[in-house]
Amino acid sequence: MRYILRLFRFGSDIVSRSFIKIIITVFLLIAAFTDTALTQEEVTHHFKEKKNDDLNAGEIIEKFKPALISIWFHDRNYYSYTSFRYIDTTVLSGSGFIFGEDGLIGTNYHVTENIDSLIVKTSDGMFYGAELILSDEINDFAILKLINPDNKKFPVVKLGNSDNVKAGTEVYAIGSPLGYEYTISSGIVAAVRENEKVSFTDPVTYESVEKQYEKVIQITAAISPGNSGGALFNTKGEVIGVTTFTYTGYGNLNFAVAINTFRKLSALEETKNYINDSAILVKKEENLFNTNLKLARDLKSQVTYDWSYSRLKDTMKMTDTFIVKQDSVNRSRLQTAEKYFQKCISMKPDSFAVYQELLDMYVLTDNFSKAENLYKDIRYRFDSDSLLNLLSSNLAEAYSTSKEYGKAIQFYEKMLKQDNTLYFIYYQIAGIYEKTGDYKSAVKEYNKLLALDSNYNEANLQLGKIYFNEFRNYKKAKKYLQRAYENELLQKGSIQFNSIDLQYLMGKIAVIEGRKLDAIMSYLELRDVYVYDTKDNEKKLDLYKEIMNMEE
């Protein structure tokens, strides 16, 4: 019988299909009448007899499942496509494997990137917190450690030698594709590629990012989102790679980063040399800063988007449970976002952008007293008129969005009482008056500024525009526009700021006064300014037509 089975297995290329069916039928009939009858499963087992100590898919998942994990994170702003709302939930980020009995985990760096609180789920259904110990952003590796106060020992995988991997080797990928935990897929090594360049699209900035991996293993075993960071096994039950990326829409193109590259990172962890390595500590600090900043920005975006519910709650006459609930969520998110921004400030106290975003959040959520106190801190820390001018410009825009013009002016006036040398504040106040249509007050504030600094050309230009467009006082408009033009030539030798509006209005006034040559000169300067806005091109065309209609 054993001879017949061996003939079927190895001689199938010289035996016809009908003859093979006859042999199997005879074999089964004989076996049915013997004391040592074999079941059909046993026959199949013999047909698929394993080589040496190789493990099949079932044996690998059974043996190593306890050492495999999934990685999750808590997302307070997850957009649900079922409810079409942002919800507070726990989201799967990827997969991983335990390689140290004390809870050391290997995974991809991108699985852990920008996550504040990592959650690891083991095969027994238990959840553990985890901290990022080391990362290799270039090769996309990260080492986590389970927070394990009971000093529990965990089952581990065995790391293989990826230098021995060749095309045609049978492999198994295990992970959590699309949330289906402990999914195993089989295939072969399609190719082994060194110094492989890969282009990705950054999910936040949508910019193209290029990486070059030291060594990747191209596999035919299927992987999907959620497999990232999962173990790639050979038939010996050794991890030879970490499943990392796939090309969607281009057939079965799947890749794992070679485990020997990961071994370099794990070796560094074993020595503990990274604890005092300044470069690694700086990188870790940078990752932590970026994570906190991303969380703060996400929360800020959501809370400012939904803050209208909090305004309704303060003015509603009848209780609306949904509005009350949303207001509670908003205030909770606001506190959390504030906490993350403060963490960023404590890590990088000279990061002006963080202060700027926190101040904007305070303004957009009507926390004006907090905005005032924060601005005092900013003024104390940053002695730069350009930065403060930028900040006040953003504040003006934020106030305009929230329609709190009166509070904005009060805020700026308090700033001037503390320091009346902050000339740009006059400019911001005048701009708010313009937005509200109070042009007389705007003129008053611009003139206050020019009395303090006659070379503040933005104020001259704005006054020229107000007198031309709103008051139709072309004589005064000409005075301020001419002053702005001459100051620019004297200070910089050319017109470098708002040249479209300046040349256009000066040309229009020249047309009104019948000064054709001056109008042509303004048009020629205006024509040579490169612009992107269609409205600016329309100004060029308008002045050109006005000049063409002038009498000789």
Structure characterization notes:
- By secondary structure, this protein is an alpha+beta fold.
- α8 (307-315) packs across α9, α10 (352-364) packs antiparallel against α11 and α10 packs parallel to α12.
- The model is unreliable at 1-49 (pLDDT under 50).
- The N and C termini lie far apart (116 Å).
- It is elongated.
- It is built from 20 helices and 13 strands.
- Helix content is 51%, strand content 20%.
- The chain has helices spanning 2-10, 17-32, 40-47, 57-64, 109-112, 259-271, 278-305, 307-315, 321-347, 352-364, 368-381, 385-402, 405-418, 423-436, 439-452, 457-469, 474-492, 499-512, 516-527, 534-548, and strands at 68-80, 85-100, 104-107, 118-121, 127-136, 141-146, 158-159, 170-175, 183-201, 208-219, 231-234, 238-247, 253-258.
- The protein has a six-stranded antiparallel beta barrel. The protein has a six-stranded antiparallel barrel with strand order 8-9-10-13-12-11.
- β2 (85-100) and β3 (104-107) form a beta hairpin.
Q: What share of the residues does DSSP label as strand, in percent?
A: 15-25%
- Return the average pLDDT rounded to an integer: 82
| Strand line-up in the sheet with most strands | 1-2-3-6-5-4
| Helix amount | 40-55%
Radius of gyration: 35 Å
Uncertain segments = 1-49
Helix- and strand-based class? Answer: alpha+beta
Anisotropy-based shape: elongated
Largest sheet data: 6 strands, antiparallel, barrel
Distance between the termini: 116 Å
| Quantity of strands, as a count | 13
Q: Number of DSSP helices?
A: 20
